[in-house]
From TrEMBL:
<feature type="domain" description="MIP18 family-like">
    <location>
        <begin position="8"/>
        <end position="79"/>
    </location>
</feature>
<dbReference type="InterPro" id="IPR002744">
    <property type="entry name" value="MIP18-like"/>
</dbReference>
<dbReference type="InterPro" id="IPR052339">
    <property type="entry name" value="Fe-S_Maturation_MIP18"/>
</dbReference>
<dbReference type="Pfam" id="PF01883">
    <property type="entry name" value="FeS_assembly_P"/>
</dbReference>
<protein>
    <recommendedName>
        <fullName>MIP18 family-like domain-containing protein</fullName>
    </recommendedName>
</protein>
<dbReference type="InterPro" id="IPR034904">
    <property type="entry name" value="FSCA_dom_sf"/>
</dbReference>
């Protein structure tokens, strides 16, 4: 049986496959994913934010996240918890993402 830390690591790696089509960077390195948790009942709760309120990619990202996380045998449901606090900022991006976008 996998530990919660093991699951979180595997889930974050899978979420790196979800690319923001406007920026061409994955949502993990963009700093949009705040947490990933798996309940004993098999519900994976993904706590995340968006770069802006009213982002036109919300449905696309929700579908892509659900598809990636649903691929794990232990996941029965995916619950995306969209939050606005703490607010997203450029500082939440990984160093690699900032460099790729030319932000120093």
């Amino acid at each position: 049986m996998s530990t919660s830390a093991d699951f979180k690591e595997r889930a974050l790696a899978a979420l790196e496959n979800v690319i923001d089509p406007e920026l061409g960077i994955d949502i993990v390195n963009l700093g949009l994913i705040y947490n990933v948790e798996l309940s004993d009942e098999g519900t994976c709760k993904v706590t995340m934010t968006l770069t802006i309120a009213g982002c036109p990619l919300t449905d696309y990202l929700n579908d892509a996240i659900t598809e990636e996380i649903s691929g794990f045998d232990e996941v029965k449901n995916v619950d995306i918890n969209l939050v606005w606090e703490p607010a997203w900022s450029i500082e939440k991006m990984s160093r690699e993402a900032r460099m790729e976008l030319g932000i120093h």
